[in-house]
Amino acid sequence: MSTFKEGFLWGGATAANQFEGGFDEGGRGLNLADVLPGGKDRLKLLTSSGFDFEMDTEKYRYPNHEGIDFYHRYKEDIALFAEMGFKVFRMSIAWSRIFPNGDETEPNEEGLAFYDRVFDELAKYDIEPLVTIAHYETPLHLIKEYGGWKNRKLVEFFDRYVEAIFNRYKNKVTRWLTFNEINGATHMPLVGLGFSPSSDDVRLQESFQGLHHQFVASARAVQKAHAIIPGSQVGCMLIYAPVYAYDSNPENILHAKKEADIFNFFCGDVQVRGEYPYFIDHYFEENGIEIKMEENDLTTIKQGTVDFVSFSYYMSRTEKKEKTPEEQGEGNLIGGVKNPFLKASDWGWEIDPVGLRIALNELYGRYRKPLMIVENGLGAYDKVEEDGSINDDYRIDYLRAHIAQMKEAVKDGVDLIGYTSWGCIDLVSMSTGQYSKRYGFIYVDKHDDGSGTLERKKKKSFDWYKQVIASNGKEL
């Protein structure tokens, strides 16, 4: 028998802004991703202050505009997902396709109809959609006019958006996620909260205020889903990285615990337990943070807790209280120092399969809610051989090692309900805006210079993952 329960949700994950394309079609408005350039400057913009949200087409390419053109090729792509045996497909709805500016009173029918077609195509193959409501796609008008999630008005606009999609798709979608990687907002408020801090001095204050608005919006969305779609399940979505102390020095252990509390558990505690955690008051006091709340906010948060916990896992994080620039982990997006026991990907992301087992145990031990891994994968350079084959054994090795640790976590007693590998088809990297950072089982002929035919090709990992799904994880 397989370690994984019958009905385990195997599949793949994407985001509209990274693969959909059609950025100026079907009445869609501009969103945040449309003004993020491709290439090495992107990460600098994501983490710095004062981004102006304007496009400079003479200086930059904007790969998110075309993505991999799922907008026109969704039937072909979904057929390939079905051939792999997907039980579930994680995707997001582009908010600006439904409300082009974000603050309209009536939704865009062309946008609603597009997702109707996508959901109908998935249903044809018995693939369940898992829909992220907000995945780094804040409408640009809400950013420029209102200042993004710093502004309480976005709660009202988000209410209108979720009511529109819940009512429209209530017979087609029962599993939803509210905000993608919500806890990453303090590291990169640009993508998570739709604003660029004017300075580092206000970064934390504005970020945590924006998070509070998202907590209220998420809780209200959970309540609306349960009312509009009976039997629906709504999850939170965290970016999770177990935090290790660099050594057994108690100072480093305490520092690692504090970092883990704020990064891994603060948002989860609010969304799963329905209350701000005990440790946050001291952190707010130390950092001069004051959250403005309305009278019923805490009640709303308490009454709108999620049904399950989903998360992305790419790397662990090693912390040292006092670190030199030389010790800094180069590629790990969430900080820390280099872990001497781990190898890294081509982009410097440390590879730690055992960390996934640790993450699953930590999350389940804390929350006792069903867990779902909705992002995990290896960004790598892929080579097309002369015969057309793409032999990505390195990706198979990476995924095999992580799924093996998932099995161990299930044996530990963790209630794991699904796994969707990130970028199941090649797409535009969020952190670098590159096509060359490939994650997929399906190769897309599109390149960083804008060239390419968009032709789809199966990689070696395609048939490997098909076998994993068919055996319910027994054959790796």
Written overview of the protein:
Pfam families: Glyco_hydro_1. InterPro entries: GH, GH_1_N_CS, Glyco_hydro_1. One of its GO terms (cellular component) is cytosol. This is 6-phospho-beta-glucosidase. Belongs to the glycosyl hydrolase 1 family. By secondary structure, the protein is α/β, with parallel strands linked by helices. It has a single domain, classed as TIM Barrel. Helices cover 39% and strands 12% of the residues. It is built from 15 helices and 12 strands. The strands form 3 sheets. It has an 8-stranded parallel β-barrel, surrounded by 5 helices. Helix 14 links the parallel strand 9 and strand 10. Helix 7 packs parallel to helix 9. It is globular, with a radius of gyration of 21 Å. The mean pLDDT is 96.
Percent range of helical residues: 25-40%
CATH-defined architecture? Alpha-Beta Barrel
Instruction: Estimate the global geometry from the Cα principal axes.
Output: globular
Largest pleated sheet: 8 strands, parallel, barrel
Q: H/E element string?
A: EHHHEHHEHHEHHEEHHHEEHEHEEEH
Count the beta strands.
Answer: 12
The top-level CATH class is Alpha Beta
Question: What's a concise summary of this model?
Answer:
One of its GO terms (biological process) is carbohydrate catabolic process. With 476 residues, the protein is α/β, with parallel strands linked by helices. The protein has one domain: Glycosidases (TIM Barrel), CATH 3.20.20.80.
